[in-house]
Amino acid sequence: MSWPKPVRQKIRRLEHVIRDLSETFVGRDTAVRLMALAALCREHLLLIGPPGTAKTELVTRFTAMVGAKDFHYLLSRFTEPAELFGPPDMTAFKEGAWRTNTTGMLPEAEVAFLDEIFQGSSAILNALLTMANERRYHNGGDVVDCPLWMIIGASNHLPDDAGLDAFADRFTLRLLVDPLPNERVDDLLDRGWALEQNRFQKGNGQTLLPTLSREDLEALFRRIGEVDLKPVRPAYGQLVRDLRTEGVALSDRRAVRGLKLVAAAALLRGVTRAAPQDLWPVRHMWQRTEHAQTTAVAVDGAMAEAGAGPPSSERPAAKILEDLDVLVHAEQGLSGEVSLGAHLMALNKLRRELLTGHRKETDAIEKVEAVIERVLGRLEEVHV
Known about the structure:
Layout: H1 5-24, H2 29-41, E1 45-48, H3 55-65, E2 70-74, H4 81-85, H5 90-94, E3 111-115, H6 122-134, E4 136-139, E5 142-145, E6 150-155, H7 165-168, E7 173-176, H8 185-202, H9 214-223, H10 233-245, H11 252-268, H12 292-305, H13 317-331, H14 337-357, H15 362-383
Parallel strand pairs: 1-6, 1-7, 2-3, 3-6
Antiparallel strand pairs: 4-5
Helix pairs in contact: 1-2, 1-9, 2-11, 10-12, 13-14, 14-15
């Protein structure tokens, strides 16, 4: 059984977002996939690592590509709740009511990126706890439903304060984000400079057009429950028991939510039945940093024991052509030189991928080259 065509199209668009960001940000493939998975599942993601590892830029581009309302803030121990949730609503105050004006603030965001998240005061963290778990914000005497998909929290390290455990537990997924190793420096400089050049051309500009709409993501979210988990349910249950035996703290809540992540991993592959390879998100469900490696080893062992082979790095030509369909669809909304130029770069990446791994697929190569010629023609018209 396969997904209906409209669902497959939405999956392809999300795959395109993942691939585009993975190619733009060197060595951040796992962060990109976890971000997409978290948004799809309505779960929260915690990124642990030093500043300067492109976390903010990655989140900014992701939200632009999925058309999400975002909110970014760097917390400190001096941050006031009004800086996140909004200033007092003076009109309401004159009428004898106490409310905040949440326009453009965190309660109205779909994706929130909060840097140094554990630096927030107890008042901020308590409000975030309710928002993260219930998607609600207590505004004066009113309880407001929030459109929040996910909170992405960033921190240099996990706190040792037991009082923060309940809050930290809301972040089902975690990732250690380290600076790139020396052997990747040249790639980092090349792609980083390309991003900077793009900024020079755009001004301040986030002119990225959404590849996937909020409605698309919502439609995929509703499909997660239709994934058949029976093929992996025994292996997942044993994995949870093994992790707990190894001392990896895995609360009942997070253990259950892990099933949703496994189902979403299968959905991202475009299949309706989960397989052992879809257990990979559990690698990122550790509670303490020192358990990250233990968790990874246990999950990899469980996947191998259940029959999951190593992932293939080479995509079939048919998959590459699916990406081409996504780009052709996105081209309809493009008009300026910068957006068409970026579009052309994405098309050339597909062409190189075909030439590298599928030289005999001449029909596929010619199809991509025809689209490239059309976009080049449109660029020449812009210059005239």
